[in-house]
Design brief:
Structural class: alpha/beta
Low-confidence stretches: none
Number of strands: 6
Order of helices and strands: HEHEHEHHEHEHEH
Distance between the termini: 57 Å
Oligomer: single chain
Strand order of the largest sheet: 2-1-3-4-6-5
Length: 198
């Protein structure tokens, strides 16, 4: 059975992502391992590991600028996420679509001041056009799709917060309850910024 990490990797590829920039750490460990497996198996996603989280965010922004794709950067919980802020502000100021995937401590630790547990939604609220924590496998599809769709539409960074325990949970299809959102990975081409001469 597929877990949430594998599902998120597959979903970002459906959004046209071919390269991600990530720095490993405990808070993003399960997802980092899944990225490494996908890269080694040649599944169409190149995993680049720069030497610092700030560089990850700056490289993702540069990737968006030069390729027209959504740039993707990945970091572990609190300190790792904090280090990405400079690169995400670069994306915001230059109107570039970037999605940051940030680890978080387990769901039961939220709000308990445990080591490296901070309110990441509040931290990223100013820089990102969309910030959401995935709290269940059933929510993963809608959050990933909304992050990519919003980043592409608003040409700004979006942030997905992925708690450590959720990363390894078995993936579940959204239920049929009326309060469960559904989404698709439909994407329109990014408009060209080239100017024509008269």
């Amino acid at each position: 059975m597929t877990n949430v990490s594998d599902f998120v990797i597959d979903r970002i590829q459906q959004w046209g992502v071919t390269r991600v920039f990530g720095f490993p750490g405990d808070g993003i460990g399960e997802f980092d391992g899944a990225l490494g497996r996908a890269d080694r198996q040649g599944e169409g996603l190149k995993y680049v590991r720069p030497t610092h989280e700030e560089i990850c965010a700056l490289m993702a922004t540069a990737h968006a600028k030069f390729t027209g794709e959504v740039g993707v950067c990945i970091a572990t919980s609190s300190p790792g996420g904090f280090h990405m802020l400079n690169g995400l502000y670069d994306a915001k100021m230059d109107n570039q679509p970037v999605v940051a995937i940030v680890g978080q401590q387990g769901l039961n630790s939220l709000g308990t001041f445990t080591q490296q547990e901070n309110n990441l939604e509040r931290t990223f609220a100013d820089v990102a056009c969309y910030v959401q924590t995935i709290v269940s496998p059933e929510q993963a599809q809608a959050v990933v799709d909304t992050a990519f769709r919003t980043a592409r539409t608003r040409l700004a960074p979006a942030v997905i917060i992925l708690p450590h325990d959720v990363q390894g949970m078995d993936m579940q299809q959204p239920g049929r309850e009326h309060w469960v959102s559904r989404s698709s990975a439909w994407r329109r081409p990014r408009p060209s910024r080239r100017r024509t001469r008269n």
